[in-house]
Amino acid sequence: MSIGTDLTAARERAGMTIEQLSAATRIRTGLLIAMEADDFSRCGGNFYARGHIRAIARVVKADPAPLLAAFDAEHGVEEEKSRREERAAVKAPTLHPARPRWAVVVGAILVSLMGWGMVRLFTLPSDIEANASKTATATATVTTPVPKPTPQPSSTPSKKPSSTKPPVLRTRLTLTAKNNGTYLTVRDKKNRRLFQGRLGPGIAQSVTSSGDIRVTVGNPANLVVVLNGKQLQTKLYRFTAHPNGTLTKTASGS
User: Fold this and answer.
1) Which tens digit of pLDDT belongs to each residue from 75-89?
2) pTM > 0.70
3) What residue ranges do the domains of the chain occupy?
């Protein structure tokens, strides 16, 4: 159960529509539908979202404490974590690269060069004798190439017969607003959001998905539904469109 599902269930227990709840709380119908769909980004911040939740709970005679606790558990922790990370970023020390001491580096190079020259001066005769001795005793070495092994033909594995997958049933849904328009939330069978927003008069929104498509509508009277090329009539605020071309009422807990 999510916060939006709990708000929807409380409103339905009170026997109120979205429009009636909007008139009682002075909260826009589009914002109420978004909150029931667990979208609190339109509230303008966590402070205002908590105030809206309290106002809704007061009108539908529900206890606001569990709803606020669930909201804080989902949204308050991330906000506090973000503040701690920002404070840590501000207090991080700044490291400055160490500058090399060029006088020390140049002196070390000169000392190394002088030492190398002294070593070569005293060891030069011995180096000449050693090189002459190596030249006199050197012998030629003949390397016999090793024949490469003949590659063996590899056996080609037999191909497995390809299995034909069953066709995937897809749902094509077109939603067109009329009169004053309406607010919509559209999700696929995995609860992924396909569309959310308000449709103005004459504006159409088309979605295609494999399997069922779930729709939450603010005013069904202002919506024309075309499912798989067939126009259907509905008065449901929450319904599910199936690939077989039928509409069913969506349960509040799903």
Assistant:
1) 864 454 545 554 554
2) no
3) 3-88, 170-249
